[in-house]
Amino acid sequence: MKWKLATVLILTTACLVWFLWGIDRDVVQVSLEGLRWRYIAATLLAYTAVHGFRSLRLAALVGHGVTVAGVFSVNCIGYLAINVVPLRLGEFVRPYLLLEQHGVPFGASVAGVFVERLLDLASLVAMLLLVTWAVDLPAGGVVIEGVDVVQAGQLLAGAVVAVGAVGLLVIVLGGARLIALVRALTGWMPVLGERLPGFLAAFQEGVRELAGAPKRAAWVLFNTVAMWTTQVGGVWLALMAFADVPHGWDVALTNWSVTLSGMTVMPTPGFFGSFEAFCAAGLVLFGVDGDLARTFAVINHLTLFGFTVGIGLLFLLKEGLSLGGIIQQSREAAGAG
User: Fold this and answer.
1) Which of 19, 124, 243, 313 matches a 20 to 30 Å C-alpha distance to 155?
2) Torsion angle, CA of 27/32/34/37, rounded to 10 degrees?
3) Is residue 118 part of a domain?
4) What is this structure's pTM?
5) Is residue 24 part of a domain?
């Protein structure tokens, strides 16, 4: 685990050096001296609310009587792992903690997280469509490193949503026959053959429970919209912290949509480098000076990343857990260890 974290730190530093190379230090100094810190504090409150809506949604997705406070703690620790562990190996931390701390079957938790991710990608597609409708984008698109970010984000997110939805239908509609087939194909494997059929059964049950509860499904959708609206509000507050950048909701929506597209297309460790590049591009579209845009991008990312790491470590200490330990145990629970 130590070498993995060291690798992340090295790659993160390299990405930041690449992004900041040649930036005008005078622009950075003036921007930081004029920073309105009260808006940065308000941004942190908005990100806390984002975690709150995310926790309400996941609690509804997994059911099983789990409390929102318990899911909030799980989310904070889980997103810490997702942000600092390479290759998204922290994705199984939340299902593992829901199993260990709240007795939610691992498969049902994974089903909830899977649906959550599909909803987030569908939200990205919706935000990008709104941007293309409401904002006057350049004729050639938003091109970064030869990639039209808006178009690529729509295609990639849309494709993942479509494939994920089809996969979800296959797993759920396959029912007992699919589980029997999987058991026959993997029965000779000592770990996978023992765990995968039970995992699929719990996954199927979790999705069926949600599908059979329309009020829960509506609550999930409401919290998804509230979460992403609040996230855009957090970006708007971050923009307000800088006196010389535009502060409109169209700017905040475009900036976040382009940034999220970039992180989806180029998921670097901790999203460093990709976050800054696409976030800055989302401001340059509105005539913001490149160095000022890069300064905002770094401050915005450090605020979001610092919040995620800080609140994650707080709950990690509160629960008396080791990050390396829960990551290893979560991989074992998923049959990957």
Assistant:
1) 19
2) 150
3) yes
4) 0.82
5) no
